[in-house]
Amino acid sequence: MQMRIPCMRNLLILLLITMLAACSKQADNTAVTTTTPQFVTYTILKGRQFSDSTTISVVNTTEMKFVALFDSSAVYKTIDPNNQADINKLYGFSDNNSDHHQFSARFGWNWLNDGLHLWAYDYNYGNRDYKDLGLVSIGKEINCSIKVTTNQYIFSVNGKETIMVRSAGTAVGSGYKLFPYFGGQEYAPHDITIQIKEL
């Protein structure tokens, strides 16, 4: 009986070591695995402004990079022709740990003069500013980024850069993520689908 107890104890210790080694090996394998970024589809339903698939997400970054993909649902006509130039929102972030109508940087978009335009769009101390970044194509991937420096937002579309003023006091872009939104003054005239892949 006394002989069997040490054997049983040794067997349990050996079994425990084997299990720990297996767990350790499995953890090592999962640490090496990397995932490829995937597109997320955002839909703004007819008669609405906010898109689905949005989540509360904290942002602390020196650069937000993503790929955007529009389909034919980006073509629309507003009820009031004066609202056609209103800038819809694509993607970006609030800044300075503040509300996005106080400090933020994001891309905007609209269907204007028979073309799909992207815009640099920001707020500093509640003052809005925007610049037309030019035409982009429906059905083609658009590489976008917003770099953050001490006093600038550097918007990039397919490698072409545009600089906007940044007045936030944080060292990096700090706030929350901003998702696709229709408007402006009006609501989506039909379902609008936008795909975004973060890089």
SSE arrangement:
Elements: H1 4-32, E1 40-44, E2 58-61, E3 63-70, E4 88-94, E5 104-112, E6 115-124, E7 127-136, E8 142-148, E9 152-157, E10 160-165, E11 173-178, E12 192-198
Antiparallel strand pairs: 1-12, 2-11, 3-8, 3-12, 4-5, 4-11, 5-6, 6-7, 8-9, 9-10
Give the key terms.
about 200 residues, mainly beta, Jelly Rolls, 2 domains, six-stranded antiparallel sheet, 1 helix, globular
Can you characterise this structure?
By secondary structure, the protein is mainly beta. It has two domains: 1-34; 40-198, Jelly Rolls. The chain is built from one helix and twelve strands, in the order αββββββββββββ. It has one helix at 4-32; strands at 40-44, 58-61, 63-70, 88-94, 104-112, 115-124, 127-136, 142-148, 152-157, 160-165, 173-178, 192-198. It has a six-stranded antiparallel β-sheet with strand order 1-12-3-8-9-10, with no helix packed on it. A six-stranded antiparallel β-sheet has the order 2-11-4-5-6-7, with no helix packed on it. Strand 6 (115-124) and strand 7 form a beta hairpin. 26% of the residues are buried. Mean pLDDT is 88; it is low at 1-30.
